[in-house]
Amino acid sequence: MAYHSFLLEPISCHSWNKDRTQIALCPNNHDVHIYKKDGTKWTKIHELKEHNGQVTGIDWAPESNRIVTCGTDRNAYVWSLKGEVWKPTLVILRINRAARCVSWSPKENKFAVGSGSRLISICYFEQENDWWVCKHIKKPIRSTVLSLDWHPNNVLLAAGSCDFKCRVFSAYIKEVEEKPGPTVWGSKMPFGEGAGGGWVHGVCFSHSGNRLAWTSHDSTVQSDLSVSLSSETLPLLCVSFITENSLVAAGHDCYPVLFVYDGTKGSVTFGGKLDVPKQTSQRGISARERFQNLDRRATSSETTEQGLESLHKNSISQISVLEGGKSKCSTFCTTGMDGGMVTWDVKSLESDLKDLKIV
Amino acid sequence: MSKNNDSNQFRKVDVDEYDENKFVDDEDNGESQVGPDEAEVDSLIRQGNLMEALQAVLKNPPINTKNQNVKDRAEALMLKVLSAFKSSDIEKAVQSLDKNGVDLLMKYIYKGFEKPSENSSATLLQWHEKALSAGGVGSIVRVLTARKTV
């Protein structure tokens, strides 16, 4: 588990390139910085300056090597690498509030942007006019769209929004693709709608697209529009499937948590807290310290919880799968408000934390 | 603006009500919810069967109803049951509840904090400590984010 501190400011969003040697991230300002891995060190190789507002979403398309960024300046830019320089192309989103999240579709011929204008913009490239065109999905979204995830068939899109619902939409664009085959999600638009008690912060399809999980601000994790687990932790901000039946979610509690989905029982259960167990040195506690603790903390317990015991020292805002895809993930990475990035290795987590079982 | 007749009535209009983008909650008809059965709970308390009384008072929570009286009665009843417990029994009682029960108990506890009476805060704090160890901070987050509460 490697922890690398990039900055002191929160990392607003990040995205990796195809071979995981470069990471694009936003250091809580109007730019995007691209860092390249040099052994164990990271060096900044590019600065993408075009946005006029904080960059809220970055996605790096692995095959076509294009980066799409969206920001609070209501714009999105598609960046292409020309030689050694990244050149931006403006995409007119036609929104009148900030863009919140962006995601390339699996085939990378379109991308979706969720915004505070209560709609999702699906953008695709029009060859004749040589520019990006967007179509809007408006009904029945009634508040900011916080998170998006594409289904592997390149047509269905799951969106989590501040109106407490998670919905599955069809983002079919007839100019760019053929009609998709049937899926488990039915045929009526919206293809599914799940209600919860809080803003839906993170949403994720499983690798096959048959499962959908989302996390909500009322500290719950829900799956497949019906199964919900009330968690004992603070709200979780991001979620990702690591196998067909296991999810990792992370949020304000600063450590990732594993959940296991049981298809036969139709339930989601808490699998375990994923964090490096710290070896605390057991010193004897003197009588003076005991009374001091009583004064300060009203308990005479020995544990000095001076700081958080987790690797991240502040909320984790984004989680991304590095190796293995969503079906057999072997490493994933988390970034957070402490400006740090941690890469987690699934195999060593399984061996370190003995009761953990990743099905 | 309304200088022609010196009227200030326009200042009393709530413009947010007329905003076409105003978020309207999904209405849920809660008229059928009457809250826990007072007679049953009272008799259980008198018999000394406090565990049953707790289960009974947690039934039929007046969550969806807009009738404030129902909510007040339920809260008062809940406080009666909670105060009837001995301190040493509180932990066992909390263990006997399921997850939804713990969440509901937390909602009632925080509702009780809002209107403190002589001894209520002390008992509520004891219950709060035990409910917290059972439900974790998540249960408190659910109290804070619940849009329809007891």
Topology:
The complex is a heterodimer of chains A (359) and B (150).
Chain A lengths: L1 E4 L7 E4 L5 E5 L4 E8 L2 E9 L5 E6 L5 E6 L4 E7 L2 E7 L7 E6 L5 E6 L4 E7 L4 E7 L7 E6 L5 E6 L3 E6 L21 E4 L4 E6 L6 E5 L3 E4 L3 E4 L5 E6 L4 E6 L5 E6 L4 E7 L13 H11 L18 E8 L7 E6 L3 E6 H7 L7
Antiparallel strand pairs in A: 1-28, 2-3, 3-4, 4-5, 6-7, 7-8, 8-9, 10-11, 11-12, 12-13, 14-15, 15-16, 16-17, 18-19, 19-20, 20-21, 22-23, 23-24, 24-25, 26-27, 27-28
Chain B lengths: L37 H10 L2 H8 L10 H17 L2 H9 L3 H16 L5 H26 L5
Helix pairs in contact in B: 1-2, 1-3, 2-3, 3-5, 4-6, 5-6
Explain how this protein is built.
The complex is a heterodimer of chains A (359) and B (150). In chain A, the strands form 7 sheets. A 4-stranded antiparallel β-sheet of chain A has the order 1-28-27-26. A 4-stranded antiparallel β-sheet of chain A has the order 2-3-4-5, with no helix packed on it. A 4-stranded antiparallel β-sheet of chain A has the order 6-7-8-9, with no helix packed on it. By secondary structure, chain A is mostly beta strands. Chain A has helices at 287-297, 346-352, and strands at 2-5, 13-16, 22-26, 31-38, 41-49, 55-60, 66-71, 76-82, 85-91, 99-104, 110-115, 120-126, 131-137, 145-150, 156-161, 165-170, 192-195, 200-205, 212-216, 220-223, 227-230, 236-241, 246-251, 257-262, 267-273, 316-323, 331-336, 340-345. Chain A has 2 helices and 28 strands. Helices cover 5% and strands 47% of the residues of chain A. With 150 residues, chain B is mainly alpha-helical. Chain B has one domain: Actin-related protein 2/3 complex subunit 5 (Serine Threonine Protein Phosphatase 5, Tetratricopeptide repeat, Alpha Horseshoe), CATH 1.25.40. Chain B is 57% helix and 0% strand. Chain B has 6 helices and no strands. Chain B has helices at residues 38-47, 50-57, 68-84, 87-95, 99-114, 120-145. In chain B, helix 1 (38-47) packs antiparallel against helix 2 (50-57) and helix 5 packs across helix 6 (120-145). Chain B is elongated, with a radius of gyration of 20 Å. The model of chain B has no long low-confidence stretch (mean pLDDT 82). Classes of the chains: A mainly beta (359), B mainly alpha (150). The interface between A and B is medium-sized, with 18 and 16 residues.
